Amino acid sequence: MSAIPATSRAAALVQPGQPLEIIDAQIPSVIEPSALLVRMTAATLCGTDIHVAQGTAGIIGTGLPLILGHEMVGQIVAFGDGPRTDSVGQPLAEGDRIIWTHGMCGRCQACVINQEPSLCENRRRYMTESANSYPFLHGGFSEYGYVYPTAGRVRVPEDVPDALASAAACSLRTVMHGFERLGRIAATDTVVVQGAGPVGLFAVAKAVAEGAGRVIVIGGPADRLEVAKRWGADLCIDINDVTTNLERLSLVRELTHGHGAEVVLEMSGIPAAFSEGVDILRPGGRYLIVGQAHERTVPFNPSVIMHKQVMFIGSRSAGVDHYWKALEFLRAYADRFTWDDLISRHYKLDEINEAFEQMRSWNEIKPVIDFTQD
How would residue 195 be classed by pLDDT, with cut points 50, 70 and 90? Predict the structure, then answer.
């Protein structure tokens, strides 16, 4: 590997609601035991990045400037003292590509007793610490990145491209965790996916792969629904055409003999989707909620839970095992799903604000900041 510079060009939030600025962030000269320094190869945009940049996510943390980006892949350039293996025992060497988790402490009740690392009581999240505080590289939109000592890490297989590996590090690992909590899907189940963003589309693929009897997607715009169809969705309901929840509910019930769906997957993040999902759910059904990461209050009568005897399942983030499973899912189904349909234009770091605007305006599904471009 080439010599490590003193600074890393990075896209940082300097003022919420304002365009990101390219800064020179310090590269730490000391790597903590079990930590890693990586040279970034790709970082994909997530809806959370958009919300943080707009100042609507409430996770500014320790202050500005804040290097954004939390789904990324990079090549190892330096090791701290400690084992040179990933979290599943695969050997690591300089030049290997990895994806990595937030820092989970491994010492709290959630981590150790409950085996729920995504609920870690001391979780250290990327994109929440100032670029002025050691180890400085707290986000993915940067030429170099820092893997916290307590962060899980997984070596990326050679046959998984950078952009897909990066998407696996957030969107797909979230889906893998959610489906694990959801439990088995039967061939007789109708699955309704709310949302046609990256998480929703990966959920379509996972539901199809699990053998769902019917997969219905509610979302938009039309180009995203076309991807869902190519990936096996039986019906796509475009919210721009079918504009009311009553119309959408009627369509689902018509296809399910008036009963509703056995499984509903909330992947949209839209507050109103929750109530609609509850209506779509058949008695005895299961509702997996992944996208409702907001601070809005939604009216709800809890007696519905009892009367319909339904199960609500919440799922957030993921453990390192789900990162590994996400990569393996990409490999196992590379011939079944056209994964590149998810990946839109590749941008240089200096074009970060254009990439943000294209995603914010729904023109692209998953823009990629490509650090290998000249």
Answer: very high
